[in-house]
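As the next step, I selected for study a record pairing a protein sequence with its backbone structure tokens, which the following lines show:
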Amino acid sequence: MIFLLLILALISFDWPQFRGPTGQGVSDERNLPLTWSETKNVRWKVAIPGRGWSSPVIQGDRIWLTTATEEGRSLRAIAVDVNTGAIQQDVEIFRLKSPKLTNSKNSFASPTPVVEGDRVYLHFGAYGTACITQSGEIVWKTKLEYDNGQHGPGGSPVIYDDLLIVSCDGLEQQFVVALDKATGKVRWKKLREGYQAYTTPLVVSLPAGDQVISPGAFQAIAYEPRTGKEIWRVKYAEGFSNVPRPVYGNDLVFICTGFQEPSLLAVRLDGRGDVTKSKIVWKLDRGIPRTPSPLLVGNELYIVSDNGIATCIDAQTGDELWRARLDGNYSASPVYADGRIYFLSEEGETIVIAPGRKLQHLATNQLEGPTLASMAVSHSSFFIRTATHLYRISNP
């Protein structure tokens, strides 16, 4: 038994996309630190040039993230060594002539990359999408024909077999597209009516067939991943400028509907067509996040609003189990790892709690913020991006 525990402690899990292996903020990593500060449990800290709010992704001993330098004119991919923090690659992917940042909280490099094998897939919203090798060679580049809406690039891509799937919801045109991940060519593209949104799709595997669920303005749609054929849709009158990625579990998908008056919907996935009246199991209207994604742990759903109201919800019934105010403001999505839940605020503070139907605060940790990117978990460490640096946080 001791030998097995030692083996588990040595296993490191990759963090290959936004919100980790399942895209839902859950990690199997062990031996993670409970506490840290600028002077405690920081294995290394490296300055990252430029401005970007993409989250780090990790495969093996390499971390990838994106940034924009020269006031947004140079859109770049950066690789960092997991063990030392040394920058190993710094590659220009796109160059913009006269960029203009339309939202002061956003950046030109906010979508999170996806890493798979020797390939790194990069998305800068309407500014361009690309694939490079681990050695920094550009395999293909393309620009999807839409605009970035009022607030700039947002949602991240997702891989499904040989496809790279992206939600592209601009002011003038809205669609979901699947690119051939080997060539960047369009394999399918599905237009949809709506308005601007900034979400990341979630792939769900079901016995009846896989679904890629993409929330957009005023509606969320589930598509067949290989063909783009619509499976079902759920409508919501109050929702646009959506950001949170949905989460799935217990036969339900949990969707945050929008920005101005957000709601949280629990929807069954066994419907066809318009399921607004038939498959919404419950709806919650208080304390719903506009930016951070929900987190599902067992039978409890955890959310934190942008202004720091954390809520634990019974995932089956929608009943509120507890609610508490956390310090600060929130853009990053929470993570569950090593039996604990971590909420990272925009001010660089991480609140750590125990999962459960009663609130149990475990620790409060402070770094030099701001911190809008979601943390990554791998190598028994947290990888946290601030406005200027990337940290590796681990036990001694």
